[in-house]
Amino acid sequence: MDKNLIIDVGVHTGQDTEFYLKKGFRVIGIEADPQIYKSVKERLNHYIENGQLTLLNIAVSTKDEPVTFYTNSDRSFWGTTSLDRVKNKEITFSTPFVEMTVEGCRFEKILEQFGIPYYLKVDIEGTEILCVQALKQFESKPKFISIESTKTSWNALLNEFAVFKELGYQKFKAINQAEVPNQVCPSPALEGQYIPYQFEYGASGLFGEETPGNWLSESEIIKVYKDIFWSSRILGVNGIISKLPGGKMLLDTLNIKEPWYDTHASL
Question: Is the pTM of this model over 0.70?
């Protein structure tokens, strides 16, 4: 495990990547959307030129071959290779996706080429588990991992934790991503160098020992997610209240928005 390496799968606008770079880490950034990749490459070109950042325009896949990628012009962070995720978003939000072909690559191949990172961040809208499962083939593991966790399937969530447990991860946090813009970088820093940084909405935010809250055991974190799932079923965009006459208007009036969560895991 390379203590100075972070792999950012799902770079999007690059704000998390930039945070890791400014903290002094070397970063391998992965972004499937060609337009977003081009924009981030131009903005962070200084780090690419000095060798601190390697940016890859690929999609994590089950095979090393071209794959269908779906991008959303209204919400660029919804880009995904998961057709199930696309269908769900189209039905729920009546928003169209554009289909394109991009280069696909197994995450095992990426780890073989660049090594095991200190921290692995994965946010690729529905296929995060591919990156976690790829670690089974390696003796060394990242000290920390974060993935956007599912809120639609309890069995899928339990499978995520089963894979984490198999890999040796024993401590967990559920981070409300809607609250990331309120995060404050601790000083002195607990990971890398200290920098004052303001996260925008959509960022994954702080990582490792700098994440807010206490580390929980597997049984404790599953209890937390039970509450999250129940809240989603009642107050979520497809929840009980939203399906009642005037329910969506009521939720909008009360400014109740369904949050999403990242699971952070530590060895």
Answer: yes
